[in-house]
Amino acid sequence: MSTHTTKPSEISRDWWLVDADGVVLGRLASEVAKRLRGKHKPNYSPNLDVGDHVIVVNAGKVVLTGSKLTAKEMYRHSGYPGGLKTVPYAKLMATRPEQAVEKAVRGMLPSNRLGRAMLKKLKVYPGAEHPHVGQAPKTLDLKEVAAPSNIEQAHTIEEVTHHA
């Protein structure tokens, strides 16, 4: 019996719709990264992009636990000396929550051209609307997998802006 190797002609891609409302950011990102890589499929191959397309809606309602919403910062560098820019997650979640979700998922994908190809299949939207209705996406419920275990430590951007 020989080992089966997946050929590019055997790859079939599904579309998944994920509602991020009330879901912890890191747990959401790990489940989405699994779907993008294709690790849930029996024909998974680490050297091929066999993953599915994933649509994440309600990215603005994602939850960060502990004090991450106020203490955590996103870094980027311009490439010039002294060009380090920092953005607190409270500001990032208020202005561009889709960027926070994309960054979390990007960190869980391979750092090569295969990972960049997988990231192109991720679509993130801050609200409940998305333009991919024609693809008839299947819903992926992450409430039981990625819900916060301690509800007192889970914080959304609405809570922080109301208390300020």
List keywords for this structure.
164 residues; alpha/beta
Topology summary:
Elements: E1 15-19, H1 25-37, E2 53-57, E3 64-65, H2 68-71, E4 73-77, E5 84-88, H3 89-95, H4 97-106, H5 113-119, E6 122-124, E7 138-140, H6 143-146, E8 154-155, H7 157-163
Parallel strand pairs: 1-2, 1-7, 2-6
Antiparallel strand pairs: 3-8, 4-5
What is the level 1 CATH name?
Answer: Alpha Beta
Number of separate strands = 8
Query: Sheet bearing the most strands, described?
Result: 4 strands, parallel
Cα-atom radius of gyration:
17 Å
What name does CATH use for the topology?
Answer: Ribosomal Protein L13p, Chain: A
3D architecture notes:
- There is one protein chain.
- It is globular and about 60 Å long.
- 32% of the residues lie in helices and 18% in strands.
- The chain has 164 residues and is α/β, with parallel strands linked by helices.
- The model has no long low-confidence stretch (mean pLDDT 92).
- A hairpin with a 6-residue loop joins β4 (73-77) and β5.
- The protein contains 7 helices and 8 strands, in the order βαββαββαααββαβα.
- The chain has helices at 25-37, 68-71, 89-95, 97-106, 113-119, 143-146, 157-163, and strands at 15-19, 53-57, 64-65, 73-77, 84-88, 122-124, 138-140, 154-155.
- The chain starts with 14 loop residues before the first strand and ends with a helix.
- α1 crosses α4 (97-106).
